[in-house]
């Protein structure tokens, strides 16, 4: 069963739906119509261009082009994580890229090569959307981990200094903030897995059902992607924080002010 197409008149109706929340926001005094309009326009243009590119990518199905696209996604995610976490890219770009690349490539390869086992392991129809879904969720988790960790260190500066004066190493002193940051990063994924199917039908499963897949098959793929998201977010968060700690503190175990963006 083919998915029903959405024609241009129906797309216009869909965009018209945005007028309702814009009106409600205006009535409560939030003048966000310009920001919302720009965001919707950017989303439309970016997704249209990506759609054209992905069609070409799927038709060619070249392993080098597929790998190049994943590399681009990793670089964009790297810079986005650091910008949203308030850290300067020139110090942490390599560390964050190493963390997310290693976790995403490991989880995607594990899922595609060992679990799904397509005819060609580099098949764009599998590795590109799966890597994108895993990376998107991993990005959110890394933003939370970095932001929560460095906010906690700065907020509890006296406590951190006390640990050091009592003889703790840098790692022993930051360990409580490290644990809380990782917990905050993976909590949304854990909560999502615990309520999935009861509170919401996840996007990948819904998309596959709309695309004509059997519900049972869609469930298997959703379970697979959620396990990979959880694995990647955990691995990337831990590696990212461990690598960043070696950069963010000076030789005297003091957090460097020059690595944090000024609010």
What does this 3D model show about the protein?
This protein is mainly alpha-helical. The chain folds into 2 domains: 8-60, no CATH class; 63-259, no CATH class. Helix content is 78%, strand content 0%. The chain is built from 10 helices and no strands. It has helices spanning 8-16, 19-27, 33-60, 63-85, 89-116, 124-155, 157-165, 170-195, 203-210, 215-248. α9 packs antiparallel against α10. The longest helix is centred in the last third of the chain and has 34 residues, at 215-248. The protein is globular and about 65 Å long. The relative contact order is 0.12. The model has no long low-confidence stretch (mean pLDDT 88).
Brief write-up:
By secondary structure, this protein is an all-alpha fold. 78% of the residues lie in helices and 0% in strands.
Features:
mainly alpha, 10 helices
Share of residues in helices: over 70%
Q: What's the structural domain tally?
A: 2
Average pLDDT over all residues: 88
Low-confidence blocks of residues: none
Give the class from helix and strand content and strand pairing: mainly alpha
Quantity of strands, as a count: 0
Give the biggest beta sheet.
Answer: none
* Shape assignment: globular
Instruction: Give the H and E element order.
Output: HHHHHHHHHH
For the CA atoms, what is the radius of gyration? 21 Å
Tally of DSSP helical segments = 10
| Distance separating the two termini | 52 Å
| Strand percentage | under 5%
